[in-house]
Specification:
alpha+beta; four-stranded antiparallel β-sheet; 30% helix; single chain; 88 residues; 4 strands
């Protein structure tokens, strides 16, 4: 078996993914705006709404800068009535 070792970038080692439930029903343009605002937050590296279940959001963040509760606070600062579902 021929195996190669691949280098994992440091940022990937620090990245955590969580699922967040957003109570408010947001139109697609609102989802894009929310994702854009949250991705501008230092420490949050990605926000994706689930296409088929638009109340579920995958959020990626740097665990060295943020905790899951910090990410949740960022969602709730936008009055989204969000709840943490859990890690991926």
């Amino acid at each position: 078996m021929d195996m190669q070792v691949q280098h994992i970038p440091n940022e990937a080692k620090s990245t955590v993914e969580i699922v967040v439930y957003v109570k408010k029903d947001l139109a697609q343009d609102q989802q894009l705006r929310v994702a854009s605002i949250l991705e501008q937050t230092d420490g949050i590296t990605g926000v994706e709404f689930c296409p088929l279940r638009n109340h579920l959001v995958l959020a990626r963040y740097n665990k060295d800068m943020f905790s899951s509760q910090d990410v949740l606070k960022s969602f709730n600062s936008l009055n989204l009535e969000a709840k943490l579902i859990g890690p991926i």
